[in-house]
Design goal:
Elements: H1 9-32, E1 40-45, H2 61-72, E2 76-81, H3 84-92, E3 98-102, E4 111-112, E5 117-119, E6 121-126, E7 144-147, H4 150-153, H5 156-164, E8 168-171, H6 175-182, E9 188-192, H7 193-202, E10 213-216, E11 222-228, H8 231-246, H9 249-256
Parallel strand pairs: 1-2, 1-3, 7-8, 7-9
Antiparallel strand pairs: 3-11, 4-11, 5-11, 6-9, 6-10
C-alpha cells in the first residue's frame, strides 16, 4: 500500500485554492443548464422569530447570514417559512434543498454545514424575587415559562426538571413570556437572550420592562447549521460562509441587530 501523501504548506494552499475554484464553478455550471440565471435554493426558515427571522420583511440576523452566504457561493435563495416539524418533513421528502436551525444532533438525514449562528438560552427572573438558582434542577422550585420544544433542545437535566415541575409551561407565542415575567405572574422565563430582548421592546407599553432582572447562565450556546440534501451545495455554502466572515459582512450583519 503506498505511503500517504504529505503536503507542504505551499501545496496545501494550492489545493485549497483549487478546491475553492471548483466549488465556485458548481453554481455556474448548474446555471448554464438553466438558461444562465443563478441557481435557486429553496431553504426552509422557521416562522416569524424576531430578531432572527422577520418573515414578512424577508430579513433578520439568521436570514441575512444564510442568504448572504448562499449569494457568495453563487446561489439565489427562495425562502420557505414553516414550523420546524414541517420543515424537517420537507427536507426528508426533498421538497426543499435545505433547512436552517438544525445540527447533527437533530437526526435529520442531511449534509450539515459549518455552524452559522449560535443561540444562547438563559433563565431570567425579576431581581426583586431574590431567587436562588445555581443549576437547572433548582428551576423545579419555581414557576417557569419557556419556548416550545425547549425540553427537546436544552438537555436531559432540563427535561427532568420540566417533568417534575407542575408550574412549568411552554408558550406558542414567545411574547407571552415577557408579559408573564414583568407582570409578576411567573417566577422564571427561559429563552434565547436576543429573542427576549426583542420582545421587551414589544411589550414596553404594557408592562414595566425597566424592572431589574437577574440572568442565570445555565445553558451552553447551541450551534446551528444548515442541513442540505446535496453535499456539493453543503460544501459551497461553507465556502460562502467563510467568505462572508472574511469580508467583514458577517460582523456588519451582527451589528445591524446588535440592539436585540
Amino acid at each position: 500500500m503506498p505511503d500517504p501523501k504529505v503536503y507542504g504548506a505551499g501545496e496545501e494552499a494550492s489545493m485549497r485554492s483549487a478546491l475553492w475554484a471548483i466549488v465556485l464553478l458548481l453554481p455556474a455550471l448548474m446555471a448554464g443548464t438553466a438558461g444562465g440565471d443563478a441557481p435557486v435554493l429553496r431553504i426552509g426558515f422557521g416562522t416569524d422569530k424576531p430578531p432572527y427571522v422577520f418573515e414578512a420583511e424577508r430579513r433578520g440576523l439568521e436570514y441575512d447570514i444564510v442568504v448572504g452566504a448562499a449569494h457568495r457561493a453563487g446561489y439565489e435563495v427562495e425562502p420557505v417559512f414553516a414550523p420546524l416539524a414541517r420543515l424537517r418533513r420537507m427536507l426528508a421528502d426533498h421538497s426543499v434543498d435545505g433547512i436552517t436551525i438544525t445540527n447533527p444532533q437533530s437526526g435529520d438525514k442531511a449534509c450539515y454545514t459549518q455552524p452559522y449562528i449560535d443561540y444562547h438560552n438563559v433563565a431570567i427572573a425579576l431581581a426583586s424575587r431574590h431567587l436562588r438558582v445555581d443549576g437547572i434542577a433548582d428551576l423545579a422550585r419555581y414557576s417557569v415559562s419557556s419556548f416550545q420544544r425547549s425540553r427537546d433542545l436544552l438537555g436531559s437535566d432540563y427535561d427532568r426538571m420540566a417533568a417534575s415541575n407542575p408550574g412549568y409551561r411552554e408558550e406558542a407565542n414567545q411574547v407571552t413570556r415577557n408579559l408573564l415575567l414583568f407582570s409578576g405572574r411567573i417566577d422564571v422565563i427561559v429563552g434565547d437572550r436576543r429573542i427576549i430582548g426583542y420582545f421587551n421592546k414589544v411589550v414596553a407599553g404594557q408592562v414595566d420592562v425597566t424592572q431589574p432582572v437577574t440572568t442565570y447562565e445555565l445553558f451552553q450556546p447551541i450551534h446551528y447549521s444548515v442541513g442540505f440534501v446535496n453535499p456539493a451545495i453543503c460544501t459551497a455554502f461553507d465556502f460562502g460562509l467563510s467568505d462572508l466572515k472574511r469580508s467583514g459582512e458577517y460582523g456588519r450583519i451582527e451589528q445591524t441587530y446588535r440592539d436585540y
